[in-house]
Amino acid sequence: MMLTHRGRHGRLEIGGKVCSYWLAGRCTRNPYRFLHAEESPSSQQNNACHREAKKPSASTLPKSRGACELLKGKDGFKAEDRLCQGWASGACVNGDKCRFRHSWSRGEDLGLLAKLEGHEKGIAGIGFPSGSDKLYTGSKDGTVRIWDCHTGPCSDMVNVGSEVGSLIAEGPWVFAGLPNVIKAWNIQNGAAFDLQVLSGLVYSMAVDNNLLFAGCENGDILVWRGTSLTRPPQLVATLRGHTRAVVSLVIGANRLYSGSADHTIRGVLALKGMHDMEGKPILLCACNDDTVHLYELPTFVERGKIYSRREVLVLQVAPTHGLFFTGDGAGTLSVWKWSGESKQALL
What are the boundaries of the C3H1-type zinc fingers (predicted)? Predict the structure, then answer.
């Protein structure tokens, strides 16, 4: 007699549980004592825990879940549109038969140039100081790394002593937002100073018209005005209104736009605009499903999609035409490039 019962998560169990790691594309064991939904009873007959297991059918599934939902994760996407975590770590045992995606991107005009490893935790900011051939990244692991834009490897590292919540570059200045302080370095004259913050971790920053804006953990936006290259900026205003951390700041048309964890913007972790090699405007949108969507403006036609092992926390566009960067929650810095010949080069 076939024994069936429902587990604590409401899933129908037929001779045992469906492997949750297989559902997420991360199972590296085959055969395994938990059921892989694509396997037939004969492929499981040698497994003591599944001597009578068989592939669940639509008639035996709970009414609240369709048969195809077994191939979906918590994000609601089908298997073919979700990154195989086993492949990403070099351990997928299913090869060409794997139902999950074995590529870092989707789109004909998009290519991955490099993945730069070094940070041990999520990347919180990417900056290009003017007059430098170096790329600066700040991470939750408490370090700022400096990368050579020509060769790729990390050329230097600064241990700032605590979590980096944000990092930007403006002119020759690099600003790193930490808990209750902003550290600033001038890469040309060596000047450095600290700006004291009493609002917690600095999650976002923006600079415009000699003003530095900082979005903080408690929802405050602090404003400093710069006076000289040798003296620290002076705090001139505190903007209040958000009830939780300010995670994004954008300046446009003489206005400051802020996004917060108080659900002002839902599901979007980072936004960035750029142009492809043909000069078409593209919106990069990092979402909380571990993907980056690329939309052509103003039509919002999807031009491509980037897949990551962890959520992409920061986006940055390089001065070089067609080049951009993504930094994810695992600490990986990825370099991307639009294919084709730049129209700017032909002018």
Answer: 78-105
